[in-house]
Design a protein that fits this description.
single chain, alpha/beta, Rossmann fold, seven-stranded mixed sheet, 11 helices, binds S-adenosylmethionine, methyltransferase
């Protein structure tokens, strides 16, 4: 919980400039949900707002998106950006104990959230409880660290951040699917999402990830220590930068889609 209480401002600060990469991750997640304008979608661990904000923009007058998160400070950014969207509501709630009736939502989304919940099996059972029969849950988690350039590079420069391991808790194929099957979901499919981009090596394209994912590790650094760290990151990026001044940045996530029979 403390990890997120101190991260809300950084996530809010970067959310707008991260909108493009966020959209590329939202697209397959939202497509898997097969959302209709009248649906009630519960988004778990919404943080600064995605995919709840994007989904809410496509809702009709009877549809609703419930953006939820354990930490009210994380939802502050979602409230700021989504305040004018009629179909959007906010709930501060632990996903292992949702204040919702059984079978009360049509769809559930969760982007990079379940891995942070110590009792993830309880969260999966709770998702199953509140989803209506025939409903769909779609979740995104990270694939292996080695396949995710930014995490790999920054973790190496920082000398190995123990806190980071939790991000890759469901990196192994089948681990998140198994959890959902155990919770009762009948049909569960899993696929790899891979994206690659070329970043300008001279630009600090890595700074949003550093600020957001590594916030707890950076919290105690002085201004000088932070400057030294950024200098070392720049050197590490330069070592991976091609003759054209660009550096390949790869991303590997897993999309798990589960249906309640
Ligand atoms: C990596 S952020 C993901 C935010 C957003 N979905 C996104 O993709 O940008 C993880 C979020 O999980 C939330 N979280 C952690 N434990 C939780 C729990 N037990 N119940 C609900 N949310 C939780 C954190 O507060 C944080 O906002």
């Amino acid at each position: 919980m403390r990890r997120w209480q101190n991260s809300g401002a950084a996530w809010d600060r970067w959310a707008d400039s991260m909108a493009d990469p966020a959209a590329r991750l939202n697209q397959p997640l939202l497509a898997a949900l097969d959302l209709a304008p009248h649906h009630i979608l519960l988004d778990l661990a919404s943080g600064a707002g995605e995919p709840a904000l994007t989904a809410a923009q496509g809702m009709g007058s009877t549809g609703r998106v419930l953006a939820s998160d354990l930490v009210p400070a994380m939802l502050a950014g979602a409230r700021r950006r989504g305040g004018g969207i009629d179909a959007l509501s906010f709930i501060a709630a632990d996903m292992t104990a949702l204040p919702l009736a059984p079978a009360s939502v049509d769809r559930i989304s969760c982007r990079f959230g379940l891995m942070f919940v110590p009792d993830a099996a309880a969260a999966a059972r709770e998702a199953y409880r509140v989803l209506r029969p025939g409903g769909i849950a779609a979740l995104l988690c990270w694939g292996p660290q080695a396949d995710n350039t930014l995490f790999r590079l920054l973790d190496t420069v920082l000398g190995g951040v123990p806190d980071l391991a939790v991000l890759f808790r469901f990196a192994q194929t089948g681990s998140l699917s198994g959890l959902l099957r155990d919770a009762g979901f009948g049909t569960v499919t899993e696929s790899s999402l891979r994206q690659s981009a070329l970043a300008e090596g001279a630009k600090p394209f890595w700074r949003p990830t550093l600020d957001m994912a590594f916030a707890p590790a950076l919290a105690g650094l002085s201004r000088e220590e932070r400057a030294l760290l950024e200098h070392r990151i720049t050197a590490a990026v330069a070592a991976e930068t091609g003759m054209d001044g660009r550096v390949p940045v790869h991303l590997h996530a897993r999309l798990v889609v589960a249906r309640k029979d």
